[in-house]
Design brief:
Pfam families: BBS7_GAE, BBS7_hp, BBS7_pf, Beta-prop_BBS7, GDPGP1_C, GDPGP1_N. By secondary structure, the chain is an alpha+beta fold. Helix content is about 25%, strand content about 30%.
Length: about 1050
């Protein structure tokens, strides 16, 4: 049985010394002993030995040395290793930096388990393995295999980076030897290598630094390279405490350096040729050919290393300059961060712009970055949760007055921190949205909107739908206030006083509103609208409230919903800045009458809450400032080459001079925090040891949402926590199918069975294995988890999610999400001319509220409460079958019209059950048309034919690829049809992935339609007819004859497909 090596933070060795070179840690002893045992067992492809080693004469002094720990080597040597070149396994060819896991190719789950040295764990995961490298570069050369059974893509993430640094710190070895590379400060915590052929970036971890924050910072750069698909190498090593003379060998090693090189692709590595990789970029040169080894010079090596790294380094150098975090704040709600416009005095003195942030703890803080250091200008005491931050001031002047909404009140501050306004709006709900312009104040809760002028109430409007965002067009250009509401029912409402003047429906739910170019454009009447689907729409609104669409920016649904928008001008060009729930930050060039063009993109692991443009770190250099849900505030800069290099250089020198003081300040702050944590921990232990004192569990804010992706026919469940998520347990009392959860790079799936009396059904789409519950174990530092799922219409229940943070004492918080019977119907406001042929009518002694409740229990997207009208009407559309459902109801009456026969059956059963519970007598009538049946079969058959043909083609492609033929012989082995089929493989796979399991779902819908038709018509099912239908659904040849299985009078109405 494989041994387990347990460790904790106390086992990490930050300081080692050359004086204690003979001292070994427990980790060292285990590694050496087991590695030698594997060598004695003959598990290596060759017996490692240095066949030749020399020192290259020249400036860099490449040395030939032997490391104690190969993964911590930092020597500069040239080494001949012919066996590694000829006897090692041929590596896979990768076409992408983030290549998906492929079980058909070699991967580390296929290596002999005898090559495992031991498992290791710091109590967070027990699936991490250390294994021998059967083609070693040196003694004790080993492989770190994080979460070996999870079959994750072979890309580094925060978790694997963290354990790599931890394993290095578990060793007592001071290796590498006496050589260090020169580095200089580059930006924030990032340095760059100077006076060395391999151009790259360096991060330094010192003994007083927090490891988790260090890993998070380093991963920002790694994640950038992965998102840009830029090949890169990473090297982790111990280093000197200071850059001392090479002869000073008695100094301790009390810091860790992480080197990152962006590089050109190595392509298909020749097995017998010199190919620079991680060790070679650092100077450990491994040669596989004697002629190359004998002819090598420092000049030739320098040229190779420069060619591999210099072009990539120069390409991204400006992008990386300000890619790193400014600071960590409290949790930040949407639109609670603003960049103040620069005043004339600050511009004359070349000062940077100020940032104001309000967090959910009610703390308001303004700061400015001076000389590379955050300078706090003012900070308030905690108050109520801040829900929005706006900038205002007298029209025509600099808008630098700060307005905050909290609870039902609005507060105003000057840029010096003096409060000049405290106004209670008297709203019956907490303020959710706010907008300020001049002396006009617009606020809203979930449903109630109010307009104030000089703090005097002007108008109030009660919205029947949830309000997501509010705004008004430019007051001067439009000659008055025109309040605009973005509502959850897919519409924009324009108000005039307390009434709705105009309603305009969009293709998806509007989530945020922003004026074009921050002022509404040339005429002040252009409005940007961000949608739940991820699209952006530009509306033109006239003074008479008529609305037209100028353009719509269509993006893929996987990019995420829009959470914030800003417009920013730099380099003489207007830009559109977009923040998304998925963590994506996008920059588009912006024109009023043409669709924006994407210029830049960056992805982080948390949802974006605010985005602004400004010159934050250096005067004259534009940046994009971003806040995330958990409070990370960071900047992105895209510095063009023509910007004065002296400005950047001067800024770097200033930061470099203050770096020592900055580090001392941070260490002092960390020490104070550690001391406070220790005091509070002791208090907690003292209280909990006494039985009379109960333990108080912490309450953590959770941001969660579950919404329908109508393009891909799936639901997205997004959970975001202010603390690190340890695991998430899911239970549901109906069948739910999870998609791609086992391929999630941020989590590991654990399946378990509950007690027999608990009825829970969760299915993994990949294996279709029915489970009682499912636990998703998250990686370290994961604060956001996204799951994709689908279910069959007709199934309904509650999905219960237990979220456990990585905190002590152990606790969890519970969220519940309803799975509604008609979950693939969504609200629509299309002009429906066609009237469905089937209907369901109910009458009885029920109230309007009860009718509203019954319908909302079946259909998603219904408002929480019915509108204050006697007769209500709603329209829905099935995203799977494209059928419409018209719903009209009032007190004592419900009328449903649709061609979806299954929907009528589902609604009939649910209405009957709800009425029975309340003891309400119902008169129920319905009519099921044969035309509706024919229409449904037409739709299902046409979609099924496409899916069955695609599935058949993909299976045929897999069979062809397994044949020992060469598809590139111009048709000698394969026909043109087969060659064309192979060329379309990726397109077919992409189409199948966009609508997962649609074929199985359509087949289930057809079977449900068969059952519902017989049930509603009161007909008996003929023997074997259902089995015949199941068999007919499997092939395209029999689909056209499906109508013959149904007992209807007119069987000629089926359209030919």
């Amino acid at each position: 049985m494989l041994k387990m090596f347990y460790y904790d933070d106390k086992d990490l060795i930050f300081t080692t010394s050359w004086k204690s070179l003979s001292v070994s840690s427990k980790f060292d002893e285990s590694l050496k002993r087991l590695w030698k045992n594997k060598e004695d067992e003959g598990l290596f492809r060759y017996n490692y030995k240095e066949e030749n080693a020399i020192v290259l004469p020249g400036k860099y002094g490449f040395l030939a040395v032997v490391s104690i720990l190969q993964f911590s080597v930092a020597s500069k040597d040239r080494q001949l290793n012919i066996n590694r070149g000829t006897k090692r396994r041929k590596p896979n060819i990768f076409t992408s930096v983030s290549e998906p896991f492929n079980d058909n190719l070699f991967n580390f789950t296929k290596i002999n388990e005898g090559e495992y040295l031991f498992k290791f764990s710091n109590a967070s995961n027990t699936d991490d393995v250390l294994a021998i490298n059967t083609s070693p570069l040196g003694y004790f050369h080993s492989l770190i295999l994080p979460k070996i059974n999870s079959k994750l893509p072979q890309v580094i993430n925060e978790y694997s980076l963290n354990i790599a640094v931890q394993l290095l710190l578990l060793s007592a070895s001071p290796e590498p030897s006496s050589f260090t590379l020169d580095i200089e400060h580059f930006s924030g915590p990032c340095h760059k290598i100077i006076d060395y052929p391999s151009k790259g970036f360096v991060f330094v971890l010192k003994s007083g630094d927090l490891l988790s924050n260090f890993v998070k910072t380093v991963f920002i750069l790694i994640n950038y390279l992965q998102q840009k698909n830029i090949p890169h190498n990473i090297f982790i090593t111990r280093a000197l405490a200071k850059d001392l003379n090479i002869d000073d060998l008695n100094n301790s090693r009390n810091c860790v350096r992480v080197f990152i090189w962006a590089r050109t692709s190595s392509g298909d590595k020749a097995m017998d040729k010199f190919s620079p990789a991680t060790c070679e970029l650092f100077g450990h040169l491994v040669f596989k050919d004697k002629s190359e080894f004998s002819e090598v010079t420092e000049y030739s090596v320098t040229k190779i290393l420069t060619d591999v790294t210099e072009s990539s380094f120069l390409l991204i150098e400006n992008d990386i300059k300000n890619l790193l975090d400014y600071t960590l704040l409290g949790m930040v709600s949407s639109n609670c961060m603003k960049v103040l416009p620069i005043s004339q005095n600050d511009e004359a003195e070349k000062k940077t712009q100020k940032i104001i942030v309000g967090d959910q703890e009610g703390i308001v803080q303004m700061f400015q970055i001076r000389k590379g250091k955050i300078n706090m200008l003012f900070k308030t005491l905690p108050l109520e949760k801040i829900t929005e931050v706006c900038l205002g001031g007298t029209l025509g002047t600099v808008q630098d007055k700060i307005f905050l909404s909290m609870g039902t009140s609005v507060r105003g501050y000057t840029k010096k921190g003096r409060m000049f306004l405290s106004f209670d709006t008297g709203l019956l709900e907490s303020i959710k949205c706010m907008y300020v312009t001049g002396n006009e104040l617009l606020v809203s809760g979930k449903h109630l909107f109010s307009h104030f002028n000089d703090c005097k109430d002007i108008s109030t409007y009660l919205c029947p739908e949830v309000i997501n965002s509010i705004i008004t067009l430019d007051v001067i250009k439009m000659q008055g206030v025109m309040p605009i509401l973005a509502c959850a029912d897919l519409c924009i409402r324009i108000l005039e006083g307390s009434t709705v003047k105009e309603t305009f429906y969009l293709s998806s739910e509007p989530t945020t509103l922003h004026l074009m170019k921050n002022n509404g454009g040339s005429y002040g009447n252009e409005l940007l609208v961000g949608l739940q689907s991820g699209h952006i729409v530009l509306l033109k609104i006239e003074k008479n409230a008529s609305i037209s669409i100028l353009w719509e920016l269509v993006t893929q649904s996987k990019q995420g919903a829009i959470t914030c928008i800003d417009c920013y001008e730099f380099n003489g060009e207007d830009h559109l800045l977009i923040g998304r729930q998925s963590g994506l930050v996008e920059v588009y060039s912006l024109e009023s009458h043409s669709v924006p063009i994407e210029k830049y993109k960056y992805s982080c692991s948390e949802s974006i809450t605010s985005i602004q443009g400004g010159a934050i770190r250096t005067f004259g250099i534009p940046e994009i400032v971003v806040t995330t849900f958990t409070g990370w505030l960071f900047g992105l800069t895209f510095v063009d080459q023509h910007i004065d290099k002296e400005i950047v250089l001067d800024s770097s020198n200033i930061i470099l001079n203050d770096e020592k003081q900055k580090i001392l300040d941070i260490r002092t702050e960390v020490s104070d925090l550690e001391r406070q944590v220790a005091i509070e921990r002791n208090k907690y232990l003292e209280f909990t040891q006494k039985s009379s004192r109960p333990s108080v569990l912490p309450y953590l804010a959770i941001k969660n949402s579950m919404f329908l992706d109508s393009e891909n026919l799936i639901y997205h469940l997004i959970i975001e926590l202010e603390a690190t998520i340890d695991n998430v347990l899911l239970q549901c009392n109906c069948l739910v199918n999870l998609i791609d959860v086992e391929n999630n790079n941020n989590a590991v799936v654990s399946k378990s069975k509950c007690k027999e009396e608990v009825t829970v059904n969760i299915t993994l789409d990949s294996s279709l294995q029915e489970l009682d519950c499912l636990i998703v174990k998250c990686q370290l530092n994961t604060t956001k988890l996204e799951l994709k799922m689908w279910s069959h219409e007709g199934d309904h229940g509650i999905l219960t999610v237990y979220i456990t943070p990585l905190l002590q004492p152990k606790c969890c918080q519970v969220c519940k999400f309803p799975i509604k019977p008609l979950l693939y119907h969504q609200r629509t406001k299309k002009n429906i001319v066609y009237q469905p042929q089937s209907f369901l009518t109910l009458s009885g002694g029920f109230s309007l509220s009860e009718a509203h409740l019954w319908i909302s229990n079946c259909l998603p997207g219904f408002p929480e409460k019915p509108a204050s009208q006697e007769n209500l009407e709603y329209s829905f559309e099935s995203v799977i079958l494209d059928t419409v459902l018209l719903c009209a109801y009032s007190r004592g009456s419900i009328n449903i019209k649709t061609d979806n026969i299954t929907a009528i059956a589902i609604l009939k059963d649910n209405f009957s059950r709800d009425a029975t519970r309340k003891n309400i007598k119902l008169d129920m009538t319905y009519e099921i048309s044969e035309g509706s049946l024919i229409l449904m079969i037409d739709v299902i058959v046409s979609k099924l034919k496409t899916d069955i043909n695609n599935d058949k083609t993909l299976k045929l492609i897999n069979a062809i690829k397994q044949l020992s033929v060469n598809p590139n012989i111009n048709g000698e082995s394969l026909t043109k049809d087969y060659l064309l089929m192979l060329s379309n493989e990726e397109k077919l796979k992409q189409e199948a992935s966009l609508r997962p399991s649609r074929m199985q779902r359509l087949q289930a819908i057809m079977l449900a339609l068969f059952d519902d038709w017989h049930k509603l018509k009161g007909l008996n099912v003929k023997p074997n007819s259902r089995e015949d239908l199941q068999e007919a659904l499997l092939t395209t040849n029999t689909l056209d004859s499906l109508i013959s299985i149904y007992p209807i009078a007119n069987k000629k109405g089926l359209l030919k497909i």
